[in-house]
Specification:
This protein has 376 residues and is α+β, with helices and mostly antiparallel strands. Helix content is 43%, strand content 15%.
Length: 376
């Protein structure tokens, strides 16, 4: 049987591209502004080509082009942010990024008028009418479908560390949740989320997805919202586990880690052996505790701190980062680990003023700005 057309792989070298979701906020009270259709329609054509609507009408997404280096991808992302700040300001709005809006309520939520998201709302029903969640998605180009499955399988065990580093949603419905990334638990209400299973080869993956498409369960592979997924049309592995980052300076280290890990797994001759239940538990611990998490060690079965796991991962990634030209960005990860987005938001909200947190998220969105405040 011939493979379905949608599964034909578009070969790509080890490139990188970044997608990030951002929210529209009203500076009069720093609440969400459900005006994405209006903002998108008024964008200049060159910016509209890099932006798209999202499920909720207060959220949009930007995407960079395809780049050979992390530095170039992040530079374009910074330029996109600067252009977006100007575009939304003409509507009296501000842009901001985090895993969740600190004080949004589901009762205020509006779904985008875009046909894709109207259909999704009909399918997801109440699940689509919750508070918006926002992520940073990183695409890594790989040359063959077999290589893509090798990276997909191998990257699964790194998902908890990526979540711990990027955790940036400690507030939900106006209160602290005790989680560093509340976004993950909220988004998990959707079907087809979380870590994917291990696939034996590309045919196994394609047959599994085709079964969902043929049955009418999904329209195409973009309705798989796993933490990591394959995108045959682009020839990429897309890592989706990370919360949206408030400052562009924090995207670079995460992108460098993803790019380096992909090369590490691409060249690894070992089979994926991390148990699904261990990955799931570590993912929960990362969402709850961020970089304070104590993971289950895949090697010994004992405990390992997230910091120690980062040190071990950085040591394995450094030769690959050097070959990819992102070793400078990778070297910034320990600083992000000491004060990620969640810890900064919590430090900024010590007086309980979540409007001030939302305002600070907006200020942090501007390129060349350090996000919020350093944790004490």
């Amino acid at each position: 049987m011939d493979p379905p057309d949608w599964s034909l792989w578009r070969p790509s070298p080890l490139t990188i591209g970044i997608e990030e979701e951002f929210m529209l906020v009203d500076p009069s009270d720093w609440s969400l502004a459900f005006r994405s259709d209006e903002v998108f329609d008024a964008m200049p054509p060159e910016l509209r080509g890099r932006a798209s609507l999202e499920t909720h009408a207060a959220v949009m997404e930007t995407k960079t082009g395809v780049h050979r280096s992390v530095a170039d991808a992040v530079a374009e992302l910074a330029n996109l942010r600067a252009a977006l700040v100007e575009a939304v300001a003409s509507h009296g709005l501000r842009a901001a990024a985090a895993g969740t809006h600190p004080a949004a309520l589901w009762s205020d939520t509006a779904v985008s008028a875009d046909s894709r998201y109207q259909e999704m709302a009909e399918s997801m029903r109440v699940l689509a009418r919750r508070e918006p969640t926002l992520g940073t998605h990183i695409h890594v180009g790989v040359p063959t479908p077999g290589a893509a499955v090798r990276v997909l399988n191998g990257m699964r065990k790194h998902l908890p560390l990526l979540l711990a580093l990027s955790a940036n949603s400690p507030f939900w419905q106006g209160r602290a949740t005790g989680f560093a990334s509340t976004r993950v638990s909220l988004f998990d209400a959707f079907p087809r989320t979380g870590p994917p299973r291990v696939f034996s080869d590309y045919a196994d993956w394609a047959e599994s997805v085709e079964r969902l498409i043929r049955s009418g369960a999904i329209a195409d592979p973009s309705f798989l919202w796993w933490d990591i997924r394959l995108q045959p049309h682009y020839g990429t592995v897309e890592i989706r586990i990370m919360d949206a980052q408030s400052a562009v300076e924090d995207v670079g280290p995460l992108a460098a880690l993803v790019h380096s890990l992909a090369r590490l797994e691409l060249q690894s001759g070992t089979l994926e052996r991390a148990a699904a239940e261990v990955i799931e538990e570590n993912r929960f611990l990362a969402a709850r505790d961020g970089m304070d998490a104590r993971f289950i060690d895949y090697e010994s079965g004992g405990q390992i701190t997230a910091t120690a796991e980062l040190e071990r991962t950085l040591a394995a990634c450094q030769p690959h980062a050097k070959r990819l030209g992102c070793d400078a960005e990778l070297a910034m990860l320990p600083s992000l680990a000491e004060a990620n987005g969640a810890s900064r938001q919590l430090a900024h909200a010590r007086d309980g003023d979540l409007q001030a947190v939302s305002a600070a998220l907006s200020r942090a969105y501007l390129p060349e700005r350090r996000p919020l405040v350093e944790a004490a």
